[in-house]
UniProtKB/TrEMBL annotation:
The keyword Hydrolase does not apply. Keywords: Pyridoxal phosphate. It holds the Pfam family Ala_racemase_N. Residues 8-220 form the Alanine racemase N-terminal domain. Belongs to the pyridoxal phosphate-binding protein YggS/PROSC family. GO terms for molecular function: pyridoxal phosphate binding. Its cofactor is pyridoxal 5'-phosphate. InterPro entries: Ala_racemase_N, PLP-binding_barrel, PyrdxlP_homeostasis. CDD domains: PLPDE_III_YBL036c_like. This is Pyridoxal phosphate homeostasis protein. HAMAP family: PLP_homeostasis. The keyword Zinc does not apply. Pyridoxal 5'-phosphate (PLP)-binding protein, which is involved in PLP homeostasis.
Amino acid sequence: MSEVAERLEKIRARVAAACARAGREPGSVTLVAVSKLKPAALIREAYAAGQRDFGENYAQELRDKATELADLAGLRWHAIGPLQTNKVKYVAKAALSFHALDRLEVAQELSRRRQDAPIPCYVEVNVGGEASKSGLAPEALGPFLESVRALPGLRVEGLMSLPPPTEDEQVARGYFRTLRELARQHGLTGLSMGTTHDFELAIEEGATLVRVGTAIFGERT
Ligand SMILES: *Cc1c(COP(=O)(O)O)cnc(C)c1O
């Protein structure tokens, strides 16, 4: 068994255990394996171990890997990083979903460029209120959703967040609950939240997708 396969097996067991603690079906959580900056060979190993959902941050890297790995049937790419409008075309073409929508210009460009079925999007919210972070302030969410929902070519599935790292479990849960409550207020069911550091807490708080990189592919350099 490859190292990646072994790690995946452990993560799947932890996902299942977190679901059990929360009284949720294991199938209610999608594990997105974040492969940014990792070679295509490792993605092949994960695919051989049954993994189908992969997350990439950088649009050109996503484009290149989608081309290189086009032979892997049923592989699903999730674009999870912030996008510049001139890179939107790569995501529109190659991605199953986009998890970091927080600018109307990007939504408009995605809407123009998307040719297949509407791309499911997760609107990024800055739940930690960090000045330097991407994502919308919670107050900006309502007007933003109204504008984006009018656009063809994309569909808002839910909300996404990458809260500031913390060792305090209650603080981490608080961020995830804030995101869940915002989604509920806006009639959304998808919640893309939780990474290597905190995916179990995120699942207990309702995550429908978790984005796990380091615990599957090892540290990034
Ligand atoms: C890199 C990244 C992840 C994965 O983080 P790990 O700590 O490696 O699990 C998840 N989400 C986003 C948006 C990322 O950029």
